Amino acid sequence: MIFPALFSEAKGRLRAKFQTMSTDVIEDGIQHARIEYWQKNIGKLIPNDNEAFGWFLKVACNYLCNELDKTHGFCAITEAGELISFRADEQFVAKDLLLFLEKRFGKNGMIVINHAKGYSLSELAESEKISLDAIKQRHSRGRRLIISEREVLEGK
After folding, report:
1. DSSP 8-state class, residue 49
2. For the segment 37-72, what is each residue's pLDDT rounded down to a tens digit?
3. Which of 19, 59, 106, 136 has the most CB atoms around its CB within 10 Å?
4. Cα Rg of the chain, angstroms
5. In whole angstroms, what is the distance from residue 99 CA to residue 16 CA?
6. Helices marked H in the chain — which ranges?
């Protein structure tokens, strides 16, 4: 399978976005995206080269974000918004939503959201530099807050 010529820009864009990461890790992210591209036959599913390039960058960014989580813990909300997309309008909406969630649910709610994303409570405790018991308490309070908010929205 041949990659569109546009894909040669991926390394430069990813280096600009993930300046603190080593070139080897960025290469791993690109290779991961290439494998996904081949396995999912994206060239046929998304015939537009620009859209396929966007898909490719998103897959590579997700891989690199996961690597950042493993090595540096969780990033700030403003950084998270930037990592969601390369498009400024989508970044703005993402940052706005993430800031709203943090403001509405506080740290407790964000712990629940990160736990739902697959992080263990012990990983969250380590990242927040607090005890596992404290994380469990915050998780419980955040979960109750989110459930009560959902019930209000659903009219229960």
Report:
1. H
2. 888 888 888 888 888 888 888 888 888 877 776 655
3. 59
4. 18
5. 24
6. 10-17, 23-39, 42-45, 49-72, 77-84, 88-116, 121-128, 132-154
